[in-house]
Write a structure and sequence with these properties.
The protein has about 325 residues and is α/β, with parallel strands linked by helices. Helices cover about 40% and strands about 20% of the residues. Strands 1, 2, 3, 4, 5, 6, 7, 8, 9, 10 and 11 form an eleven-stranded mixed sheet that branches. Helix 5 (about 155-170) crosses helix 8 (about 225-235) and helix 6 packs parallel to helix 7 (about 205-215). The termini are far apart.
Amino acid sequence: MKKRITFAVLVMIGLMVLPACNTFIPFGQTSSAPAYVEGGLTFTTGGEQGTYYRFGQALARVISEKTDTALNTVVSGGSQDNINSVQSGSAMVGFAQTDVLSYAYEGTRLFDSKADRISLIAELYKEQVQIITLDPGIRSVDDLKGKSVSIGAPGSGVYFNAIDVLAAYGLDEHDINPTYQSFSDSMNDLKSRKLDAAFVVAGAPTSAVSGLAATENIYMISLDEDHINRLIASSPFYSKGTIGKAVYNTSADINTVAVGAVLVANDEASEEDIYNIISGIYENKEAVSRIHSKGAELDLQTASEITSVPYHPGAAKYYAEKGISVAVK
């Protein structure tokens, strides 16, 4: 009897404490977790070697400490997986690229039907298209012809970014020897010389790329001005981007294109929770920045400028308090 009483007391204490904590789901758990779990909302991020996962942990920690809403970060397959999880209700919050989000909302490219249960929270930072190689002879996208190139997992945002960049140079999937791999697998195969080059689309620095750069002399392919302009003209989701030479210790700054990294929510998420998420981020930018460098890119005006998808009412409430008007779901 004594043991039963002790166990019950421990359980009660645990239940009282848990909601106030930032409970991180262990490495390797997938986005099949329920949207609301003991201790907070499920937040789908990305692979463990990508910016989504690392920055997602930083956001979850600050939001959970500074507000009454707790987030549980979950490893996922990235943008498409996150949108599908948020759309289905198995997650309440997730990361996505702006272009993939638009495809989902319109039911095009990656998506057979419209994702009609998702809404925006904010655009947080830019994700650069990074083309990495260990071969100093590969200097341009044109040089990828006939090479073994990783272009991201099938149907991923990286895949379509790679296809768009190749198309701007008059190339397509059949002009290269494509492989479809995660960031970490791509970097491993570059190191073992099984690949000639790899596309990575994430906020720089990206953990997987930094890991390779720590042991190898990496080279990154710059896009020239004419092809950048051509790419931006063909798709409104791209903008000019630069990866400074200090990021990966390259010989010069890298000119490229970028897409936005956004937070999306399930429409059924409460107004209070989404308000807490966005206010927790933007009222505590310094705290976020101390944990992850992407916090330095947080800008409320940029966060509110997406027009392809409406915002969640909880996010709109916060923007209104700051004098910013956004389209509401």
